[in-house]
């Protein structure tokens, strides 16, 4: 019996593959750190309040599966996903201009600026007629334009930047980030492996603060 038919094996495989998310005013972006996923084996299904992602795990008989009950409604016809060597990125189009406080479950409604009607019109109808053919190139360009204009702020922006660097960086960059962050107690994050590989990375708390371990 292969691992793909064993629920315990599939669950164990999922635990090793992390996913995260961030948002703009118009989009919720879910990033799944599954490397070298075969694009023809990645299946994504969108519901008004649900997301389902499945993929064969490279060099394994196991299958990755992610099932989410979303905090708010999305527009399934205007969602898309991109498969790259380092990850699977799913872009969910918000139905309302709400700031999501959580990805799953019942999210607290927090109003933000509404999505301009012109942007919705330019992206095509929400419910395409039977013979309507979606212009994916145009939709992707519109989404990229919105992402450039509506950058996440604060911690979300910082987390998105770290995810991008970690996901697209070389093995040495990822080793440098892991080593510097762990050895410094989270006070240093370096991408220079040649520098951090030489010695232990010292703790460097912000000016005016003192670093203390929890067990002290």
Number of strands: 7
Which architecture of the largest domain does the CATH hierarchy give at level 2? Answer: Sandwich
* Spatial strand arrangement across the major sheet: 1-2-7-6
Cα(first) to Cα(last) distance is 50 Å
- List the secondary-structure elements in sequence, H or E: HEEEEEEEHHHHH
Determine the strand fraction and express it as a percent band: 15-25%
What's the oligomerization state?
single chain
Outline the structure in words:
The chain is an alpha+beta fold. It has two domains: about 5-150, Immunoglobulin-like; about 170-215, no CATH class. Helix content is about 30%, strand content about 20%. It is built from six helices and seven strands. Strands 1-2-7-6 form a four-stranded antiparallel β-sheet, covered by helices on one side. Strands 3-4-5 form a three-stranded antiparallel β-sheet.
Keywords, separated by commas or semicolons:
19% strand, 216 residues, 2 domains, single chain
Question: What is the strand and helix layout of this fold?
Answer:
Layout: H1 7-16, E1 19-23, E2 27-32, E3 43-47, E4 50-56, E5 63-69, E6 80-83, E7 88-93, H2 117-122, H3 136-149, H4 154-168, H5 171-183, H6 193-196
In short:
The protein is built from six helices and seven strands. With 216 residues, it is of the alpha+beta class. The longest helix is centred in the C-terminal third of the chain and has 15 residues, at 154-168.
């Amino acid at each position: 019996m292969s691992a793909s038919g064993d629920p315990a094996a599939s669950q164990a495989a999922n635990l090793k593959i992390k996913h995260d998310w961030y948002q703009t005013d118009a989009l919720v972006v879910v990033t799944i750190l599954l490397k070298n996923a075969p694009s023809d084996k990645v299946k994504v299904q969108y519901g008004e309040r649900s997301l389902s992602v499945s993929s064969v795990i490279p060099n394994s008989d196991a299958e990755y599966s992610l099932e989410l009950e979303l905090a708010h409604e999305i527009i399934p016809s205007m969602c898309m996903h991109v498969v790259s060597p380092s990850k699977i990125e799913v872009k969910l189009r918000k139905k309302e201009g709400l700031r999501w406080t959580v990805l799953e479950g019942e999210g607290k409604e927090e109003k933000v600026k509404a999505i301009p009607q012109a942007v919705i019109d330019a992206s095509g109808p929400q419910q395409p007629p039977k013979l309507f053919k979606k212009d994916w190139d145009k939709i992707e360009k519109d989404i990229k334009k919105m992402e450039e204009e509506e950058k996440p702020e604060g911690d979300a922006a910082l987390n998105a930047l770290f995810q991008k660097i970690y996901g697209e960086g070389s093995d040495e960059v990822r080793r440098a980030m892991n080593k510097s962050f762990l050895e410094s107690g989270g006070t240093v994050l370096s991408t220079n492996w040649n520098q951090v590989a030489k010695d232990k990375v010292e703790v460097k708390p912000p000016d005016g603060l003192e670093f203390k371990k929890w067990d002290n």
